[in-house]
Amino acid sequence: MTDIAIRPLQLADHAEWRRLWTAYLDFYNTVLPENIYELAWKRLFTAGEFEPKGLIAIVDGKAVGLTHYLYHRSGWSEANNCYLQDLFADPASRGKGVGAALIEAVRQEAAKIGVTNVYWMTHETNATARKLYDRVARCTGFIEYDLL
């Protein structure tokens, strides 16, 4: 088993973060303008309870995965919820525990502040990711709708 180090994003990670996030967006056939990349990066380092956070996975000194997550209030509990917004592992590192390690790291970060509800979404056709998700979490059965 390869040692996977998970740590918060650092300013020096910008190039690797951009590479990984672009690959994630490519997977979902999404192109974002440059100003959104800049804004996302800025927000990842902005202090605030509800600002997004980021973690990066490192194997043998190379960035191989990332996740973005954020906290938000809920009308159903005193504690916030944690939404794991983006999760990506380099294709060459898939099946080696990177995704599971990133999910667990988000769970641990949330637990530090008393948040127990960590949740995410994926596309129904993302069979590879769903195998992992079915192993590490429960499928709630909810279907997402949006007004885009």
From TrEMBL:
Gene3D superfamilies: 3.40.630.30. Keywords: Acyltransferase, Transferase. Pfam families: Acetyltransf_1. Residues 4-148 form the N-acetyltransferase domain. CDD domains: NAT_SF. PANTHER family: ACETYLTRANSFERASE (PTHR10545:SF42), DIAMINE N-ACETYLTRANSFERASE (PTHR10545). This is GNAT superfamily N-acetyltransferase.
